[in-house]
Amino acid sequence: MPRPLIFDLFHTLVPGSDAERDRVVGEMALMVGVEPSALVAAYHATWRDRMTGWDVAETVRILAGRLGGTPTEDQVARAAAHRRELAVRLLDRVPETTLAALDALRAQGHPIGLISNATAETAEAWPVTRLARRIDVAVFSCDVRLAKPDPAIYRLTAGRLGVDPTDCVFVGDGADGELAGAAAVGMRVFRTAEHNDSDPAWTGRPLATLGELAALLR
Ligand SMILES: [Mg+2]
């Protein structure tokens, strides 16, 4: 059987859009009556809680409260909706070349998985995306309360694909130490620099596009 492939999501299958994320959080701050740069900083400082615990509205409520805000539930709901719209937009930004690369890999018979350190709104937006129908098993940190590089999230995903981690190939930009995490459970690792040069110390030439993968695996 062709080896199962497990992809990271942001900066691997879709652009990370970091500046737009900060802009949207700043707009959310105005909706809930707190200082925009303070809410942006609070979002960055609490990424682990957001990746593995809090839902969208809970995040807004907790962080606005910490900054001295007292938003109404209606204001929290509006800000949460703004964040959900961002997630839909970011997932829709998958390049056509990436969709074509995934289709080619599927045609070669590779089962395809995804492991994403992602917050709740991304997991909520996922099922109706063009990516979702090309991925056999998608695991989001917010759903399983584990985040890369914890070995458990790689093992769990391999298990859902019905294979051993050592059978899998992991492809990611390298944020959060995800490449070392994948290698530690025995996965073969490819780094991509298509969207961001996140882990330049990783040995070997990175993929310039995901289109290069099919030939490398053949
Ligand atoms: Mg990434």
Plain-language structure description:
The protein is an alpha/beta fold and 218 residues long. The chain folds into two domains: 5-15 and 94-217, HAD superfamily/HAD-like (Rossmann fold, 3-Layer(aba) Sandwich); 18-91. Helices cover 49% and strands 9% of the residues. The chain contains eleven helices and five strands. It has helices spanning 18-32, 36-45, 47-52, 56-66, 73-91, 96-107, 120-125, 141-144, 151-161, 178-184, 213-217, and strands at residues 5-7, 112-116, 137-140, 169-172, 188-191. It has a five-stranded parallel sheet, sandwiched between helices. α10 links the parallel β4 (169-172) and β5 (188-191). α1 (18-32) crosses α2 and α1 (18-32) packs antiparallel against α5. The longest helix is centred in the middle third of the chain and has 19 residues, at 73-91. The radius of gyration is 18 Å and the shape is elongated. The termini are close together. Magnesium ion (MG) is lined by residues 8, 10-12, 172-173, 175. Pfam families: Hydrolase (PF00702). One of its GO terms (molecular function) is hydrolase activity. This is HAD family hydrolase.
